[in-house]
Design goal:
This protein has about 425 residues and is mainly alpha-helical. The chain has 20 helices and seven strands. Among the domains are: about 120 residues, Bacterial muramidase (Helicase, Ruva Protein, domain 3, Orthogonal Bundle), CATH 1.10.8; about 90 residues, Lysozyme; about 90 residues, Muramoyl-pentapeptide Carboxypeptidase, domain 1, CATH 1.10.101.
Length: about 425
């Protein structure tokens, strides 16, 4: 069974960057270039490189999966409810008990909380049940040949060759996610080379079949990415009435004690007042609110999707006994098509929102919040249909508006726009 959804979660993870990576053209010529570079720049023996590359073929299914990222258009509440269930929590707790000695070792050696790894294990492969059946070598070659992100995937091919030379990867039979990740916690070849660890003591690193190997390797990788021992990553909080929402977002960091002085209170337990923290409202001021600590930022080294990171971080706290978040009553957000319209309108106003993909990512959130501040709106970075209408009015020339609406629309005074939106809960 192909796990397009799980692979999509992994495709946004950051990968090593290589400038001006060659791509495209005849696939056989492309493979010849890989062989030459492997020998000249990566110390791969000619026979090893030739044998690894000999059977590689482009996989159109990989490209189709790479273009299908609609799952990330879901808002946090919908996304988290889709991924988190009572059954998944129960199985997470059962696995915590089953591998208690392994998790104790990880916590001792790497300082990574078991809830964090259990959440990744659950989301990436449903505790090892769905690891993907794409040929790994073909997937990496296909994505490196494709000229959308070759600089991200080309280095992974040479790492895969090194694993092949060690006897840890077979280009003909090794399978995984469509973006080249392997094993129960879905690690890329370079990550396996750098962090793969024998967790069960059998002398091998078997990330596909050994949960101890996969978990210990994942813990070691998180430590290498900057995970801080004995520190939290996220706390759900309550925000007081009249709060200045322009302070929310990952770009604003204050000691948690300063947030407490502004009236931010934890729903359970106590804040880590000495740690720097940011206030995150993934669905705006009407939805759940969280304080995030430095360890939260490490999640983005694993996966760059804001919604995935929020959900994985929250799920880790649930596995450790936290209560269900207070969903509140968020204002209606945008559909994928509406989000694309907003991104184009923001681009027209000079903002760098990255790709126009219908996903409310970090750059789009920043742009939304900047425009909310400029318009005098509550600046919670959550765009609504009313906000989209305002931005489109401001962003297009009269001829564009005439084509869209049949005639130029009047541009109301800023104060009137604010009042109209305020009456509608914006």
């Amino acid at each position: 069974m192909r796990s397009t959804f799980l692979a999509a979660l992994l495709a946004l993870a950051p990968l090593p960057v290589m400038a001006d990576a060659p791509c495209g053209g005849d696939f056989t010529t492309f493979l010849d270039g890989l062989e030459a570079e492997a020998i000249a720049s990566h110390g791969i023996v000619r026979d090893t490189a030739a044998a690894f590359l000999s059977a590689l073929r482009p996989d159109p299914a990989v490209l189709r999966a790479d273009r299908s990222q609609g799952v990330f258009q879901r808002p946090f509440i919908d996304f988290s409810r889709r991924l988190i269930s009572a059954d998944r929590i129960n199985r997470g707790i059962a696995n915590s008990n089953r591998y208690d000695d392994i998790f104790q070792r990880i916590e001792r050696d790497y300082g990574v909380d078991r809830g964090v790894l259990l959440a990744f294990w659950a989301f990436e492969t449903d505790f090892g049940a769905i690891q993907g059946d794409f040929n790994t070598a073909n997937a990496l070659a296909t994505l490196a040949h494709d000229c959308r992100r070759p600089e991200l995937f080309r280095p992974q091919i040479f790492a895969a060759m090194e694993l092949y030379a060690r006897g840890d990867l077979d280009p003909a039979t090794t399978t995984g996610a469509w973006a080249g990740e392997i094993g129960m916690v879905q690690m890329l070849p370079r990550d396996i080379l750098e962090n793969g660890t024998d967790g069960d003591g059998d002398g091998r690193v078997s990330l596909k079949s050994s949960a101890p190997d996969a978990l210990v390797s994942g813990g070691r990788m998180l430590q290498s990415l900057g995970w801080r021992r004995d520190e939290p990553w996220i706390d759900e909080v309550t925000v007081p009435p009249g709060f200045d929402w322009s302070l929310s977002g990952l770009d604003t960091t204050k000691p948690a004690a300063d947030w407490a002085a502004l009236g931010i209170t934890p729903r359970d337990g106590a804040l880590e007042t000495a740690l720097p923290a940011s206030l995150i409202v993934p669905q705006g001021r009407g939805g759940p609110a969280f304080l995030t600590y430095p360890n939260f930022n490490v999640y983005f080294e694993w996966n760059q999707s804001f919604t995935y990171v929020m959900t994985a971080a929250y799920f880790a706290t649930r596995l450790n006994g936290a209560q269900i978040y207070a969903a509140g009553t968020p204002d209606r957000g945008l559909s994928g098509d509406q989000m694309e319209r907003l991104q184009r309108a923001l681009q027209a106003r000079g903002y760098d929102v990255g790709a126009v993909d219908g996903i409310l990512g970090a750059n789009t959130r920043k742009a939304v919040q900047s425009e909310q501040i400029r318009l005098g709106l509550p600046a919670d970075a959550w765009p609504t249909p009313a906000f989209l209408s305002q931005i489109e009015e401001l962003s297009y020339e009269p001829e564009t508006l005439r084509r869209r609406y049949g005639r130029p629309r009047p541009r109301p005074h800023r104060r009137n726009r604010y009042c109209r939106c305020h009456r509608h809960g914006e």
